[in-house]
Amino acid sequence: MKRTTNLILGGMAVVLVSVGVSGLTARMMMPKEQNKSLAFDEVFQIDPNVRMAALDASQMQPVDLTKAAENSVNAVVHIKSTQESKTETVTVRDPFYDFFGDMFGNRGGQQRQVQTPERVGFGSGVIISKDGYIVTNNHVIDKADIISVKLNDGREFKGRIIGTDPSTDLALVKIEGEDLPTIPVGDSDRLKVGEWVLAVGNPFNMTSTVTAGIVSAKARSLGVYNNGVESFIQTDAAINKGNSGGALVNARGELVGINSVLYSPTGSYSGCGFSIPTSIMTKVIADLKQYGAVQRARLGVEGAALDNDGQMMSPELKKKADELGATEGFLVGNVLDNSSASGILEVDDVIIGINGKRVRNYAGLQEELAKHRPGDKVKVKILRDKKEKTVEIELKNEQGTTKVLKDADMEILGAAFRELPDDVKRQLRLNAGVEVTGVTEGKMKAAGVRKGFIILKANGQTVKSVEQLEAIMKEANRSTEPVLFLNGIFPSGKRAYFAVDLTQE
Q1: H helix runs in 311-389, sequence order
Q2: 488 vs 90, 204, 423, 457, CA distance in Å?
Q3: Can 492 be counted among the known catalytic residues?
Q4: What residues are paired with 150 via a beta bridge?
Q5: Which of 70, 267, 315, 351 has the most CB atoms within 10 Å of its CB?
Q6: Pair (135, 228) in one structural domain
Q7: Active-site annotation holder among 169, 236, 307, 349
């Protein structure tokens, strides 16, 4: 029986301590014997001889950043992402529906074909290996049909997406080249508040732009990634539109972060920019290259941070913290069944460290978990009954196992699909749907789905396109219960329901 604290959290959100869901790709489970992960330096072709020769802040003031800047700009690229024009079917609401309802059988609207305009976006990226792997933000290349990469020397390449992770807003892009300029990857954990950094990117489409500032804060959480992983480096180096995906570089010319977020009431630079630290980036990007999906560890506790990133704690939470003798850390309010923490952590434990690294808030906890894969063992320092204690926990994934989750796509369903033609929609009086045009060996056949079945809803969501069905399938595959519940109709008018088991062995 789970025990849940009666703590009143006031205005603070109850959060699930997990490093979140995986990226846009679904995953296939592999046997444990294949769960061998490579280090970042093994996954990518890193030139060990490349190091920059800038002066250190401890040696001289002001710091000479010229060498770091000169070398960094060559490895920071300009990315152009293009969404091609498409024809889409939209429902135009009939004004008479509000008065007469569905008495004329129009279901509240009419189907029309519209041509979407071409959309073009710009951003930055960082070459991390000589053979052309580039780190950027997911939002820079999200939904792009064409990716164009331009180097500082004027060369242009076509880019292809290797993997994406919306939870951290990171993406891995590949261009075909050899001996490309790179930035050595540094350790963001060693950054200190007040240390000089450079932001390198392409703001407002102005290529090869360098701005300087200092590290203003670490382990910041802004809530911009929809419960994703956030532990930003805050800097006052100027970051503007177009800097997204560019490099945050220390005085030695090492990459320490990926510039991602501009925090401004006006939409322009106002002294606060935020970067994803390399402590998170290296593991995420290595996973995307090796597996196609992020191998994300989940601690499996709910609770609240005692240091709410500078915000005032509620009186109830402050009282609870005083009772426990804690001034910072993450307060455990509930331990989930079959999770990493199950049977080890308890309600009212305060997590104050992982593997010797101090945990001050939720962002810090996320950052430390984001460095690990399921199957890793971590030493968690807690405050229990006003006494410090260290426990060892083997981390599990969202599904409660330590198996590697491999990239998968619609092929696992063993079926072909098409959007429902307009004439069929009119005949069956439907506004949307996806038709199964063929079934071979796979998950669909095993569930009893036959050719001709029209999927109207999947896991409770109305299905309007094959792309939407795929997104729902991938979301289900990442959950603790990987099942796709289908609600639909056959051309004969017969209703049908199927449960498609997505579990991979």
Answers
A1: 315-324, 362-370
A2: 20, 48, 18, 7
A3: no
A4: 78, 156
A5: 351
A6: yes
A7: 169
Backbone φ/ψ region at 154: left (φ over 0), alpha (ψ -120 to 50), beta:
left
**Containing structural domain, residue 197:** 46-79+121-288
If asked whether residues 233 and 218 sit together in one domain, one would say yes
Q: Which of 189, 219, 215 is nearest to 362 (CA)?
A: 219
Q: Which of 139, 231, 339, 372 is catalytic?
A: 139
CATH number of domain containing 495: 2.30.42.10
CATH number assigned to the domain comprising residue 159: 2.40.10.120
**Tokens of residue 231, six digits:** 């532990």
Residue 78 designated active-site: no
The Cα–Cα gap between 29 and 504 comes to: 5
Say whether the peptide bond before residue 95 is cis (omega within 30 degrees of 0). no
Model confidence over 319-351: pLDDT tens digits? 888 899 888 999 999 999 989 999 999 999 999
**Using one digit for the tens of pLDDT, what is the confidence trace for 209-234?**
999 999 999 999 888 887 789 999 99
* Residue 139 appears among annotated catalytic residues: yes
pLDDT at residue number 19: 36
Query: Tokens in use for 375?
Result: 């199957």
Out of 385, 404, 423, a domain closes at: 404
Helix (H) or strand (E) holding 500: strand 495-501
User: Would you say residue 6 lies in a domain?
Assistant: no
- What tokens were used for 430? 């439907």
> Of the residues 241, 264, 288, which one is the last residue of a structural domain?
288
